[in-house]
Amino acid sequence: MRAALLAAAALIAAAPAAAQDYGARVARVLKATPLIDGHNDWPEALREREGEKRWTMDLRDLGASDPAYNTDIARLRRGLVGGQFWSVWVSPDLPGKEQVEQTLEQIDLVRSLADRYPDTFALARTAADVRRAYAAGRIACLIGVEGGGQIDGSLSVLRAYAALGAGYLTLTHSRTIDWADSATDDPRHDGLTDFGRKVVLELNRLGMLVDLSHVSEKVMRDALAVTRAPVIFSHSGARALNDHPRNVSDDVLRLVARNGGVVMVDYAPGYVADAYRRWSADSLAEKARLNSPPYNGLDIGQPEKAAADYAAWLRAHPAPTVTLAQVADHIVHVAKVAGVDHVGLGSDFDGVGQRLPKGLGDVSTYPALLAELMRRGWSDPDIAKLAGGNVLRVMEGAERVKGQLGAGPSLTSLDARAREGQ
Length: 422
Description:
Blueprint: H1 2-13, H2 17-32, E1 35-40, H3 42-50, H4 73-78, E2 81-87, H5 96-116, E3 121-123, H6 127-135, E4 139-145, H7 155-163, E5 166-170, H8 194-206, E6 209-211, H9 217-226, E7 232-236, H10 250-259, E8 262-265, H11 269-272, H12 274-290, H13 303-316, H14 324-338, E9 343-345, H15 366-375, H16 380-405
Parallel strand pairs: 1-2, 2-4, 3-4, 4-5, 5-6, 7-8, 8-9
Helix pairs in contact: 1-2, 2-15, 2-16, 7-8, 9-10, 12-13, 14-15
């Protein structure tokens, strides 16, 4: 970490005087407070693109790879990253037992990072672990399980993930599951089922964070009513700025403030900018209009013509540019409504492809975002809260609740299942 700070100082020295002040302030804040990102999909990107090579390939510099990654060790250091919740996402469309198997492989990959690069990474489960890793110049590796379907309806599986170091469970991903409604699928339960409430309480007992990104607003409200510990949104934006159901309404932001939780702001363009969200919907509609086998589409049965016509449509309708400043707008809004104690960073790097906001193309760019907020008048203490102080406080809160609940028998039966009728 000392080398990264020196590199940042060298860049600052070459910058104009005004930029030097913000750069120096960012470096000073991040020397004392670890920057912690709530969500990065690098493990899944490595699995998808590299297969078995992911276990042995050199992860120090992937900037020239094709397709490019948003993450590697060199850029994590340039971005002054102190801790990362690595998402161990698997497809919610897989059968439950396959989701469990692939989740275990993803956890294994994250845990292997510290073994392969012990001078760079250290496994972390608690806030104290993160602080120890950062003091030693290492990046804390935290684990987030991104979807309730990945426990396959079993609290025993959830407990096994906790024992392996998982720090949070996202209650759903993109699909509604047997016990909770997703924000991006048809609802079936009007929020959480009784089993879903038990999952929240078991997370509390285990000291794992309840992650409410991806869930319906009713699930957000139900979970906030049930939980005894602060919650997180590991990668979500402000719905007042972009009315996407993945984002968080002002009413829920106020509930998060009362809960003591944190909303970690996402960089995905469709969640950041309403214009991009609408362009994306139009783009998909145009593709379907041209070719929707087996019955529909102007170019049906002519895939080459459909591809050429779609390319022409894209040239005539380029994607709107989404910017770093728009991400900063979401951060400012969350802080305005919920308070500066309840906002953090949750990039979604390596989970949304290469169409990232201009100025936020990879993990080296966190200092630029923090500098933008400084230009808007944010103080160094508030930047420290945003960067990592808030999520560390939430982690400590979850650990206190775990201690209060004790290490005795589970709050639910050992064989409780999320099957209908049970």
